[in-house]
Amino acid sequence: MSDHSVPASVDDIVVRPPHTVTWQVHLDRTMWVGGVRGLMLQALHPLAMRGVWQNSTFQDDPFGRLRRTADFVGRVTFGSPEEADEIGRRVRGIHRRLRVSDPDTGRTHRVDEPELLLWVHCAEVSSYLEVARRGGLGLTGRQADRYLDEQRRSATYVGLHRDDVPGSRAELAAYFAHVRAELRVTEEAVAAVRFLLWPRLPRRLRWLSAGLPAYVPFGALCYYTLPGWARRMYGLLPEVPRPVVTAALRAFRLAANSLPEPAHDRAFMPATRTMLRASRERLGAAGYDVSRGLRGLRDPRRWPEPPGR
């Protein structure tokens, strides 16, 4: 990745400027696979899964949570610093009020306990990074570490301290090795993954049912990109050779990345699309060439010339 310099003011325009590794990863369309994979992985933590089950409409609208997650990730990546701060305050405020009951111990926990927030963060960012790299996004090991370090800031928006968050692949691997003893396949976890493999649509979305057979390969792809230890815990689908999964993921990435940005962005909530449009406008006003959208800004040639050149 180029070390091309950018105007200092770009940090006032977007949380993560185009020269960051986060920009590269979060504009890759494998994020959809990574997002669902992240939900499947998160479900293995009993308290985290029960927190979702007891405090959301996941059972009726599993993909609503995915779109809300996409909105949060979008705002703390492509939004202005003010937009990121605002959604961070909103998310922290919601989490502060929520509780989760643990039937195994009879205890009640806060949803915003650091251990739960950290698990959700690590499951999410590891999924984005692993799927993007396996799908063909050419990141070096150093760039992968830089991505995880950049995501420490994103973790602060939900209430974590950046120093408590893994900032490299080695630190992330150590975290997963430590936390695996706490993971378990609960009834809620199995139900959640089955929802994501073959969703039962709520009544208001039943008109989409005809498209479910086309969705099934996508859901299976998300499942098969899980770490081997996670798939073995679930045991919901027969194993397939790793090269087959990698080839399918690369084919998905190629097809998804070929979609024009306006067509792709229709998958987001209206508020997310408005935020992305405002980001493009601010960057364009600052001298960035946004004629090919935000994805086009992965090319440093579309950035403003540095002063003095």
Molecular structure report:
- The chain is mainly alpha-helical.
- The chain is built from 15 helices and two strands.
- It has one domain (18-300).
- The longest helix is centred in the middle third of the chain and has 22 residues, at 114-135.
- The radius of gyration is 19 Å and the shape is globular.
Structure classification: mainly alpha
Number of helices: 15
Distance between the termini: 21 Å
Domain count: 1
Order of helices and strands: HHHHHEEHHHHHHHHHH
The unreliable regions are 1-7
Number of strands: 2
C-alpha geometry: globular
Average pLDDT for all residues: 90
Largest sheet: number of strands, sense, barrel closure: 2 strands, antiparallel
Strand content: under 5%
Q: Give the C-alpha Rg.
A: 19 Å
Helix content: 55-70%
- Read across the widest sheet, the strand sequence of neighbours is 1-2
Question: What would a concise description of this structure say?
Answer:
The protein has 309 residues and is mainly α. The chain has 15 helices and 2 strands. A two-stranded antiparallel sheet has the order 1-2.
List keywords for this structure.
309 residues; mainly alpha; two-stranded antiparallel ribbon; disordered N terminus
Write the layout of secondary structure elements.
Elements: H1 21-26, H2 31-42, H3 46-55, H4 62-75, H5 81-97, E1 99-101, E2 108-110, H6 114-135, H7 141-156, H8 169-179, H9 187-197, H10 212-224, H11 228-234, H12 242-257, H13 261-264, H14 270-285, H15 293-296
Helix pairs in contact: 2-6, 2-10, 4-14, 6-7, 6-12
